[in-house]
Design goal:
Cytochrome Bc1 Complex, Chain D, domain 2, 20% strand, 5-stranded mixed beta sheet, Immunoglobulin-like, 6 helices, 3 domains
């Protein structure tokens, strides 16, 4: 398989949609750098010979001003360097552009010294990542302890993973096989052992592999249980903002600014609620920093992302969150939990 090579290779396999573009830019940078290096070397040797120290009675060759030459060696490199910058900026923007709605979302947690991976259906892996061929994969990553770096050379992706924050990375595999997975940031004494493999499978084989793995509870289901057990459902949608359909939407804050409710915003709202208060609400939510593991925070985020938009009531409901003014306490006797809107309501 591609992970094993019997001969020396200058570059790893090119196994993602981004890999050829990264290789093209890298090749151009190497060629441009090599050409400039060779040109400078030739000019140094030429000038050293032509303008060497001479006898006192030997007249050096006459020189004259070369204005156009001086302009050329300033303007041409300028255009080349600006072109390389633009090329790299466009490629970087495409690498960071969010994937479409059909992307396969996989949670990744870095820990000394392993990669803990969980699929949407609850299937777990350690130091292995199985993905389908030709489907965009979105990795939602964080660290449990120190800075790690999730690197798949064959896909040309490399992303720092920090504790206390979420980062995302996208890729689409184009070649079936096994590929190296590394931690590319020194993370402790066993850093060199924090390696694994990525297995790219045909879509049918990937589905068969998923079916053959006994899944744990899906993250969204675990997050729903946490949401109820922590008492979140008693406030959100009543004295706190509703969470139904909030993911990926703009949220207006108390200072008048607007933020997109992505994974990082949800994580920060769980661990440090006063950081960004939603307009019209009081900062009543307690901080869960240090009380929840990164995996539990990820489960809560997965649950919030799974909530659809709140459907309008088909009959009058006393104290329904949609009818309640922000900061007004919930009606007494609210005991039924409605998963679709993430709150309790009266029957």
């Amino acid at each position: 398989m591609p992970v094993n090579h019997g001969t020396f290779r200058l570059l790893p396999d090119s196994a993602s949609t981004l890999a050829p573009r990264v290789d093209a830019l890298t090749g151009f940078l190497l060629l441009a750098s090599g050409f400039v290096t060779l040109l400078v070397l030739v000019l140094i040797v030429t000038f050293a010979i032509r303008f060497r120290r001479r006898a006192e009675d030997e007249v050096p060759p006459a020189t004259r001003s070369h204005v156009w030459l001086e302009i050329a060696w300033s303007v041409i490199p300028l255009f080349i360097f600006v072109g390389m910058f633009y090329w790299g900026a466009v490629l970087y923007a495409d690498m960071r552009r969010p994937a479409g709605p059909g992307a396969l979302e996989i949670n990744v947690i870095g820990k000394q010294w392993m990669w803990k991976i969980q699929h949407p259906g609850g299937q777990r892996e350690i130091d292995e990542l199985h993905v389908p061929l030709g489907r965009t994969v979105k990795l939602v990553m964080t660290s449990q302890d120190v800075i790690h770096d999730f690197s798949i050379p064959a896909f040309r992706i490399k992303q720092d993973v920090l504790p206390g924050s979420y980062v995302t990375q996208w890729f689409t595999a184009t070649q079936v096989g096994e590929f190296h997975l590394f931690c590319a940031e020194y993370c402790g004494t066993m850093h060199s052992g924090m390696v694994g493999r990525v297995v790219v499978m045909k879509p049918g084989d990937y589905e068969a592999w998923l079916a053959g793995i006994t899944p744990d509870e899906p993250p969204a289901v675990s997050g729903e249980r946490l949401f109820v057990s922590l008492g979140c459902a008693q406030c959100h949608g009543q004295v706190a903002p509703t969470l139904a359909g909030v993911y990926g939407k703009p949220v207006t804050l108390s200072d008048g600014s607007t933020v997109i409710a992505d994974e990082e915003y949800l994580r920060e709202s769980i661990e440090n609620p006063p950081a960004r208060i939603v307009a019209g609400f009081e900062p009543r939510m307690p901080s869960f920093r240090g009380q929840l593991t990164p995996e539990q925070v990820g489960q809560l985020v997965a649950y919030i992302k799974s909530l659809g938009a709140a459907a309008p009531a088909t009959r009058p409901v006393t104290g329904h969150p949609a009818e309640r003014v922000p900061n007004q306490p919930p009606a007494k006797g609210s005991t039924n939990y409605d998963r679709d809107i993430g709150t309790y309501h009266n029957p």
